[in-house]
Amino acid sequence: MANKISKLHSTMDHGDMDHGDSDMCSMNMLFTWNYKNTCVVFKWWHIRTVWHLLLSMAVITACAYLYEYLKYFSTKSLVASSNASMGRTVQLKRASWYGAQVGFSLMLMLVFMTYNGWLMLAVVLGAAWGHYSWGILTESNTRTLACH
């Protein structure tokens, strides 16, 4: 019986499956510092070398910084418009900015969920830098999702 199963398996077409050292995205479910073959959110954002890692860290740091700026900008611009009558246009604008913030923070959360220590560090550094630059101005009158 085992011989029949072995023969059956040997005749199966496995397509393009490569069980060796391939260039496929790795999916880690445990914390790691290994960067090779890490894909960040999208399949095309594939880290293969140290230079890819450094560039990815710079982009992620900038994105986390920009997220903090987005919180500041939306608070600054919407506080001024909320003093006016709360018409549909203002409500739509506030809802749009809030949706952008949530989407941005969830994308940063997905970066964090790669469980890659280097990428996690980039998110934290960018958030700290952004909060240092913009957080003081928004602390008193905003809520935070803190997804990143």
From TrEMBL:
Please indicate if the UniProt record lists Transport as a keyword: yes
Does the entry feature the keyword Transport, yes or no?
Answer: yes
One example of the protein's molecular function in GO is: copper ion transmembrane transporter activity
Q: Among the entry's GO cellular component annotations, what is one?
A: fungal-type vacuole membrane
Q: What are the record keywords, sorted?
A: Copper, Copper transport, Ion transport, Membrane, Transmembrane, Transmembrane helix, Transport
Subcellular location field? Membrane
- What Pfam families does this protein's entry cite? Ctr (PF04145)
Q: Which residues are listed as membrane-spanning?
A: 50-67
UniProt membrane topology term: Multi-pass membrane protein
Superkingdom as given in the UniProt entry: Eukaryota
What family is it from? Belongs to the copper transporter (Ctr) (TC 1.A.56) family. SLC31A subfamily.
Q: Which PANTHER family match?
A: COPPER TRANSPORT PROTEIN, SOLUTE CARRIER FAMILY 31 COPPER TRANSPORTERS
Please identify the protein, giving its name as recorded: Copper transport protein
